[in-house]
Amino acid sequence: MKKNKLVIVFVIILVVIIGFVLFLSKDNKINKFTFPKELIVENNTNHKGIDTISMVVLNKIMKIDTIDLHIFDIKDGIFKNGDLDIMAYVEKVPFNKHMYALFVAKNINTYNINDIIAHEMAHIEQMEKGDLIQPVSRENYAIYKNDTIFYLKTPYDIRTFEIDAVNRQKSISNDLYKLLYK
């Protein structure tokens, strides 16, 4: 009887392990999308799929049809904000209404990329709506919903436009996952 219980336990453990391996090895297929020709995203990084992720967030979640977004690498750790290591940031290109440059760190791992892109796309949406204005100088301040926020005087985690982006990024990232994968 004791031998039969051991065999049953062994078989159950083996089935669980095989099921777990099969689950992890399952290759999620990315859904196919069509986008408006006015939605342009150019990936100049080694982050495979970052352009598709950006386009899905902008067009399918935020319903933005006209953007010209160029994505570039930044050196790892080049931008520091106190103890916070900036992994990405977006800038509106001056004198071009819908053009943006997104800079992402080379060391972003695949598991964080959706959250990071969701956060930066939230900033693009803020700028597209006119809620966030970053003056051409971008040296000292931003204007968010008519409130001037001085970078040197206001810590990152209490800047209202960052709080808004952080609060929205998980929801955007969850919506993105549901749209991307079959």
Structure description:
- The protein is of the alpha/beta class and 182 residues long.
- Helix content is 42%, strand content 21%.
- It contains four helices and nine strands; from the N terminus they run αβαβββββαβββα.
- A four-stranded mixed beta sheet has the order 1-2-6-5, with helices on one face. Strands 7-8-9 form a three-stranded antiparallel beta sheet. Strands 3-4 form a two-stranded antiparallel ribbon.
- Helix 2 packs across helix 3 (110-129), helix 2 (50-61) packs across helix 4 (160-180) and helix 3 (110-129) crosses helix 4 (160-180).
- The model has no long low-confidence stretch (mean pLDDT 85).
Extract low-pLDDT stretches: none
Q: Give the spatial strand order of the biggest sheet.
A: 1-2-6-5
* Shape call: elongated
Figure out the total of helices. Answer: 4
Mean pLDDT: 85
What are the secondary-structure elements, in order, as H or E? HEHEEEEEHEEEH
Termini separation comes to 45 Å
> Using only CA atoms, what is the Rg?
21 Å
Oligomer: single chain
Percentage of β-strand residues: 15-25%
Give the proportion of residues in helices.
40-55%
Largest sheet: 4 strands, mixed
Overall number of strands: 9
Give the helices and strands, then pairings.
Elements: H1 2-25, E1 39-43, H2 50-61, E2 67-74, E3 80-81, E4 84-85, E5 88-92, E6 99-105, H3 110-129, E7 132-133, E8 141-144, E9 147-150, H4 160-180
Parallel strand pairs: 1-2, 2-6
Antiparallel strand pairs: 3-4, 5-6, 7-8, 8-9
